[in-house]
Automatic annotation (TrEMBL), chain B:
Organism: Pontibacter qinzhouensis
SUPFAM superfamilies hit by this protein: TPR-like
Pfam families documented for this protein: TPR_6
Protein name according to UniProt: Tetratricopeptide repeat protein
Top-level lineage group: Bacteria
């Protein structure tokens, strides 16, 4: 068929051939901030009703090629930029010759910002009944952070992002609007240019010792290797009505990254260097000497280069970086090395057809130290938890009491134990997005996109004979490799028809989406292997294992947004989904939504009144449903096979469930967006009431059935709360600009019903120690353990097992940011806080076990009963997890352009402190949590159990950025 | 130009339609319907039952060992409260044990009712094996749990009811089996079931059969470390770098029973579930129950001959340094041991593992000598030796807790799912003569004089409480 001739090459040739067809005309211009008169880079300029356009370069300049003069009568250019009110400029003949100067007003309320995520295609925020958070490249460009999740810490007002530990590549725990699920993790689904990313929702299942969520691992994040290069903007929407169009996959919200695909004019280059030091966060260590045993001061450096350019027909943008951090564990056991590359193209294939492409590659290698309690040696457990008493030759576990000579022996032992570890993880990740935008009519836009995310991760854990002998284990050497290969495919076709008649406007969106993911995990392990031999084939005993999960989700959606007089909007939509993980008797699942938006200040009477103190009032409310699909293949009853004594061995597999369906979060939300005091203050207030029905619980059936835990749709979880976020322009003068961002979010979380099923634990150890439990009538993931009652003499009288000891979920979270600019000097600070949650400081409790400390236990109890009851009064070790953490503080100086000469366009010099200040109510780091737990469910996690986990290090980084 | 556009759109639609194959997934797992009736399905299922038997032992043996006086959990791994003993129905380990025993019997029923009938290759011997393993599941369930449902989610049955069920299964196995050695194993299993029931006549009859026909009978359950079924008792008593479990000093010479040389995964030692010694112990106890002390002594002396004929091994156990919560375990062969404060100091119980290889009793070992038996004159003195021999011979095999009269409760998860479970069923049986607060494992060690004194001699306690329920059933 002729069809196949339409290849990429043909398209490119066609682009080249089409150029001379028109007698082109060019419009030059510059875009400035109306107040500060500073130029604005990255402003999108589009010819209204077409896909033709360009964007401003680093100095706010643009060059736009137009069709011949005769065709340009009445041409309107639309200028849009995150954080600015759009500007429409009708071109007149003079504009075609003179320099066009466009001034844009800052828009703190962002009422007319155009967003995409959750809407199918472009929609002005004015029309939306839900909240969309947008983050511009400008907002994050000075943060010398090389992980997307860490980059977004403190930036999304109603999402809390916490690093679960300080080991390289450790996962983050992201929560917004509480915890909808006790089954899936609360990480939002991540899209890059419309392509669904791996966010590690399928947990490692075959014992990946480094990242498997088991006791000695530190759960690995698949977000850590999404490149942060070349980001144009980021959008975040909460799960519920906002994510209804994502169907069975989006109850936790959606985060979408849009990448740059063009520049303006001839090539513009940029380069940056971030160089600094890293220091261990020591304030949570119990023994002063632990820092001398395990930590070093590390080096951080990151170098990046990029370029972009193009015209209205063709654009390109490229960014690449190299990053190396030695980490703060001795012998560089937390070293991280990363290469990121991202490139984007845009091309006007036809006058009404645009092609966009982005491609990214990540190569990441990191090292991990052993942590948690693996039964053998692990650094923190050895030093902080008293395990030094039993490991190796055995030492006095009270490190700070040791003589110098004794400590030198401990140090020597630890030094060897650390240097003998060899645990690595390597990731290679390719992601691409390809899209075509077709606008056959001014009112009709059709977009088709497909893309893939291919992530190959390999973990290797070498336990040498030398290490085993050092820690006095009689085990032979082993080499364990774990591969996790993920392939995600996304296909998307969406059409949007924008029709206006009189005072009515109709925005009709119809689309279909399909994604499928494959997750293949392979373990290949060699035992009895010579030290130094690093391939499994050299081992005397070789074993392997494999896990495979595959899921396909496909759906159609229809959305109608009706506007009246540009101030009353009705938003309705529905998505129907099929999914291979659904039970056989389920069929298509539907997700409806309905909402309204009302711009009170657009009423004529309001315009007449025109009060100074209140400028914008948008009132909105909505109801919608979004889901989480169940575990792939859990719907079928199976027989499980294993090897045993040289032959096949069969047993009951999973019990199966023909009624397995997605858990559905029904969200009800009402909110108001305000612009106050000449729009110098923006304030958003939301109330949400989310109810997850058919919540998926992995519950244990009766022991007498002999069956393992089973996945069932039996729960009901409720999350309610208020969200406040504000941005205040405290000072706007010629030389001064001071901004403050702040947010506060309350969460009232409750497991309304477990459908008659028993309580179960998400993580933790055992019911006789500490577990993080899900139980009817309590918040998801509360701390359950022994509550000891002490008599008047101060000794233990009784113990109540499985008591509620506190909720791990905070009741209040929020963030704050301060930006101060004085002439060319700017200062920024970002912070997060939480209150109302609890954690179990298991380190503190465990120290009793081997006699490292009895801190926290009444002296009378120790005097009479010794430490025999150490497990019976766990409430003594439950601490408030309240914190205020300053994530970044930085200072940037942009060198005056007068001193830069002709080559350099910009030069800025900055200094940033990452994680400089922590204020916590607990003695342990509320964010450094035990990764999972041997008896946990694995995927849903709330944190709350602190056990031998490292805190994120501090970094002090100097930066130089240039554009030329 | 528009032709191109149309073609592109057409291509997009075609891609969408051809995407239909993209919505299909292939389950890499085997469903139960597709398994039944396939070649060798019955043999593979039986091997799965053997695997589950090993898993069940793994879930039970090491916990019962620390719940008894045999071992103390000297580390933070495993269970820290069974030792005390503090056994709560909410303890996940209680549930895991119950669940794995139930899985074994459920597998037997599924094998007999679904897998075996569907396969043309099923033989009587395979059905016999399935019956036997199912019966053994009921047997250990009855020994470890005071109450358990007989069926999934069903009514709670007493130990006696479950022992009858075990007897029913094992007799069915016997009827189908044509291997004489296996029939002797079944006889010993039946002797044990009747022993637990207190049915002296049947217990003696079946035990006598074993003593006469196969006194060296040994049925062991094998482990497969390469395929994820390691012998946990071996791990905790030998392979673990932190010397997880520490034996009572008077049993030090019997530790470890299981060990590895080279790669632990490929060298997992089996655990005996039926051995000839037990028939002698049953006969001796029955004799004492009949006040026939001399016969009991004769049987015990014969038993010593069997124990002596069992294999031993010489191993390097230098890494067992007993460092942990208690680091005062005796490590020298010169140390003398008093079984309790009133007992004489005796030597030969503690090994010096640093001095060279030690001798390991891989099946049975005992400190009791013929002279000891000769020296016992009263019924209680012989009974004491019988208790001590039972303890030493069954060391590390998960039998001691039952012999002490302790039983696990029905699990909390069972109660939450099964309305037949009442509050009484959820209480562990810990007789009042069992000292709490780690008393069974406690000792003092006077390093200056090289003397270890046990806090309590549980065999003395057993003799004192011989009339108590659930202990020494053939004395009644």
């Amino acid at each position: 068929m002729k069809l196949y001739k339409v290849s990429l090459l043909a398209i490119l040739l066609w682009i080249v051939n089409t150029h001379p067809l028109f007698a082109q005309e060019k419009v030059h211009g510059v875009v400035k901030d109306a107040k500060s008169k500073n130029t604005i880079p990255g402003v999108s300029i589009q010819i209204a009703g077409t896909q033709n356009g360009t964007s401003t370069d680093v100095n706010g300049n643009f060059l736009l090629t137009l069709a011949p003069v005769t065709q340009n009568n009445g041409v309107t250019l639309v200028f849009t930029a995150v954080g600015y009110m759009p500007v429409s400029k009708v071109l007149n003949s003079a504009d075609r010759t003179a320099l066009l100067i466009i001034e844009m007003q800052e828009d703190m309320v962002k009422l007319d910002e155009v967003v995409v995520t959750g809407q199918g295609l472009n929609v002005s925020k004015r029309r939306l009944s839900t909240n969309v958070t947008t983050i511009s490249a400008e907002q994050i460009k000075h943060l010398p952070v090389n992980r997307i999740d860490q980059l977004l810490q403190s930036q999304i007002p109603n999402a809390q992002i916490k690093l679960s530990g300080g080991q390289a590549g450790s996962t983050t725990i992201i929560q917004s609007r509480g915890l909808n699920s006790a089954f899936a993790n609360s990480t939002p689904i991540i899209y890059v240019d419309g392509v669904r990313m791996d966010n590690l929702n399928t947990a490692p299942t075959i014992g990946m010792s480094l990242s498997g969520g088991i006791s000695q691992g530190a759960a690995t994040s698949a977000l850590a290797d999404i490149p942060v290069e070349n980001i144009e903007r980021i959008e975040f929407i909460n799960g519920g009505a906002a994510t209804t169009l994502y169907g069975s996959d989006a109850a936790n919200g959606v985060l979408q990254i849009f990448t740059k695909k063009n520049g303006s004019g001839k090539a513009s280059f940029n380069a940056s260097a971030d160089v600094g030091r890293e220091y261990a966060t020591n304030e949570y260590l119990y023994f002063d000497r632990t820092k001398d045993l395990l930590f070093q001061d590390g080096f951080y450096n990151r170098y990046s280069v990029g370029m972009d350019g193009g015209n209205s027909d063709f654009g390109y943008s490229m960014g690449a970086s190299y990053n190396k951090s030695t980490g703060v564990l001795i012998h560089n056991q937390n070293q991280l090395e990363k290469i990121d590359f991202r490139v984007g193209f845009s091309a006007k294939v036809l006058s009404d057809l645009t092609y966009e492409s982005s491609f990214s590659y990540n190569n990441q290698g990191l090292r991990r130290g052993r942590n948690g309690n693996s039964g053998g040696y692990s650094g923190l457990w050895f030093a902080e938890d008293g395990a030094s008493k039993i490991i190796g030759p055995g030492f006095n576990p009270v490190l700070d009491e040791l003589s110098e000579a004794e400590f030198a022996r401990v140090k020597s032992f630890v030094d060897s134990a650390e240097v003998l570890q060899n645990n690595t993880s390597k990731v290679n990740r390719f992601t691409t997005s390809q899209s075509l935008k077709f606008q056959p009519l001014k009112e009709l836009l059709i977009k088709g996109a497909f893309g893939i995310d291919s992530r190959q991760q390999r973990e290797q854990s070498v336990v040498s004979m030398a290490f085993n002998r050092h820690i006095r284990s009689n085990n032979v050497g082993s080499l364990s490799n774990y591969d996790r290969n993920y392939l995600g495919l996304t296909l998307d076709l969406t059409g949007q028809y924008d029709y206006r008649i009189n005072d009515f406007s109709f925005l009709t969106t119809l689309g279909g989406q399909l994604f499928r993911t494959e997750d293949r995990q392979i373990a290949y392990i060699g035992q009895d292997i010579r030290d130094g031999a690093l391939t499994v084939s050299q081992a005397a005993t070789r074993t392997s294992s494999e896990f495979y999960a595959e899921v396909a989700n496909y759906g159609l959606f229809l959305q109608e947004n009706i506007g009246f007089k540009n101030r009353y909007f009705l938003d309705m939509g529905i998505r129907g989904d099929g999914n291979s993980a659904f039970g056989s008797s389920i069929g298509v699942q539907y997700y409806p939504k309905v909402g309204f938006s009302y711009i009170l200040t657009s009423e004529p009477f309001f315009a007449d009144w025109n009060p100074k103190f209140i400028n914008t009032i948008k009132i909105r409310a909505n109801y919608g449903v979004a889901g989480n699909f169940p575990t792939p293949f859990a719907n079928e009853r199976t027989i499980a096979f294993d090897g045993f004594l040289g032959g096949q061995a069969a047993t009951f597999g999973q019990p199966g469930n023909p009624d397995l369906r997605p858990e559905k979060t029904h969200s009800r939300e009402a909110g108001v967006d305000l612009g106050l005091l000449n729009n110098k203050v923006s304030l958003t207030v939301n109330y949400f009431n989310n109810r997850t029905e058919d919540a998926l619980f992995v519950v244990p059936p009766a022991a007498s059935s002999g069956e393992p835990n089973v996945l069932r749709n039996i729960g009901v979880i409720s999350n309610k709360g208020w969200e406040f976020s504000t941005t205040v322009a405290l000072l706007e003068r010629k030389d001064w600009d001071v901004r403050l961002r702040a947010s506060a979010n309350t969460i009232d979380n409750l497991v309304v019903s477990t459908g008659g099923a028993p309580s179960f634990n998400l993580s933790g150890m055992s019911s006789r120690t500490i577990q993080i439990v899900v139980k009817e009538g309590y918040p998801v993931g509360y701390i359950s353990g022994n509550y000891g009652t002490f008599g008047p003499e101060g000794t233990l009288v009784s113990t109540t097992p499985q008591s509620f000891l506190g909720s791990t979920l905070p009741e209040l979270t929020g963030s704050a940011g301060l930006n101060v600019a004085y002439k060319n000097l700017s200062f920024f600070a970002n912070a997060d806080y939480q209150a109302g949650g609890y954690l179990s400081n298991w380190d503190k409790q465990f120290r009793i076990n081997y006699g490292a400390s009895t801190e926290g236990v009444p002296a009378e109890e120790i005097a009479i009963n010794g430490t025999a009851n150490w497990l019976n009064y766990s409430q003594l070790f439950v601490e408030k997890s309240d914190f205020l953490k300053v994530r970044t503080v930085g200072l940037v100086y942009a060198v005056d352009k007068r001193f830069l000469g002709n080559v350099l366009k910009n030069l800025s010099i900055g200094f940033t402190a990452v994680n400089p200040l922590n204020f916590t109510a607990s003695a342990s780091d509320p964010e450094a949590v035990m990764p999972g737990g041997a008896q946990g469910q694995g995927s849903a996690t709330t944190g709350g159990l602190n056990y031998a986990a490292y805190s994120a290090p501090r970094q002090f980084i100097g930066s130089v950025k240039i554009n030329f | 130009m528009h032709t191109y556009i149309k073609q592109l759109l057409y291509a997009a639609i075609l891609t969408g339609l051809s995407g239909c194959s993209l919505v299909e997934v292939q389950n890499p797992n085997v469903t139960d319907e597709s398994f039944l009736g396939t070649p060798q399905s019955e043999a593979i299922w039986l091997n799965g039952m053997n695997r589950q038997l090993a898993v069940t032992l793994n879930n039970t043996v090491h916990f019962t060992e620390i719940a008894s006086d045999n071992y103390y959990n000297n580390s933070s791994l495993s269970n820290k409260v069974f030792d005390i003993p503090n056994i709560l129905y909410s303890d996940l380990d209680v549930d895991n044990m119950q669940r794995s025993i139930a899985r074994l019997s459920q597998m037997a029923d599924y094998g007999l009712h679904n897998v075996a009938p569907a396969s043309r290759e099923t033989t009587d011997n395979i059905k016999a094996d399935m019956h036997f393993i199912g019966g053994y599941a009921y047997l250990i369930g009855a020994e470890l749990y005071e109450n358990l449902p007989l069926t999934a989610g069903g009514p709670v049955a007493s130990a006696a009811e479950r022992l009858q069920k075990a007897i029913e299964y094992i007799k069915a196995a016997d009827a189908l089996q044509n291997d004489p050695v296996k029939k002797q194993q079944y006889a010993l299993a039946l002797a044990r079931a009747y022993y637990n029931l207190g049915d002296k006549q049947n217990a003696v009859a079946y035990a006598d059969n074993v003593v006469k026909n196969n006194p060296m009978l040994l049925l062991q359950v094998a482990f497969d470390g390469v395929n994820g079924v390691s012998n946990t008792m071996q791990t905790y008593t030998f392979s673990s770098s932190t010397n997880t479990y520490a034996p009572l000093p008077r049993l030090d010479f019997l530790d470890p029973k299981y060990y590895h040389v080279g790669n632990a995964s490929t060298d997992q030692k089996p655990i005996a579930i039926l051995k000839g010694e037990e028939a002698f112990l049953i006969l001796a106890e029955a004799a004492l129950g009949n006040n026939n002390v001399d016969e009991a002594k004769t049987v015990l002396k014969s038993l010593l001959e069997v124990v002596k004929r069992r294999p031993v091994a010489s191993i390097d156990a230098k890494l067992a340094q007993r460092k942990g919560n208690r680091s005062d375990y005796p490590l020298l062969a010169t140390v003398e041991v008093k079984f309790d404060k009133a007992s004489p100091a005796r030597s030969g119980f503690v090994l010096d593992r640093q001095a060279g290889n030690i001798t390991v009793y891989t099946v049975s070992g005992s400190s009791v000598t013929e002279a000891d038996i000769d020296g016992a004159t009263t019924s209680d003195q012989v009974l004491y030796l019988l208790c001590l021999m039972r303890q030493e011979i069954f060391m590390s095999e998960g039998r001691r807790m039952t012999d002490l009269g302790m039983r696990f409760p029905v699990s909390q998860v069972e109660q939450q799912n099964n309305k037949n479970v009442n509050a009484e069923h959820t209480q562990a049986i810990i007789p009042s003569y069992i000292p709490g607060q780690l008393g069974m494992d406690d000792f003092t060690y006077d390093k200056a004089t090289g003397l270890v004194t046990m806090e309590v001699d549980m065999n003395k306690v057993l003799v004192q409480n011989k009339t108590a329920d659930r202990v020494l059933p053939l004395l009644k």
